[in-house]
Amino acid sequence: MAEKWVDGTNVVITVCDMTGKIIYMNDQSARQFAKYGGLELIGRSLFDCHPEPACKKLRELLITPKRNIYTIIKNGKKKMIVQSPWYKEEIFGGLVELSFELPDDIPHFDRS
Fold this sequence. Notes:
Elements: E1 12-17, E2 22-25, H1 27-32, H2 52-63, E3 68-74, E4 77-88, E5 91-102
Antiparallel strand pairs: 1-2, 1-5, 3-4, 4-5
């Protein structure tokens, strides 16, 4: 599905279809979710891997495709999570989730 360069990035990339079935994980995703099965999660439902509040939000995103962007702190590291719909020939295909660490001293710029 994806080019090999996605395995060389430090961004966790996980993709599901419109039913919530995991269809792709890059190397970082497989490593991050190794204790849950890593690449063996491909073909399984996202709903098997998330608590109910997250499942509710994922169901909403699959019914009404839109972006969901937020930050978390996990194990002392701040992370950005981006969940976004993906399309093939303008037809909704599912969701792609990107997760990456944010440095403590991340700069912010206002551009006009």
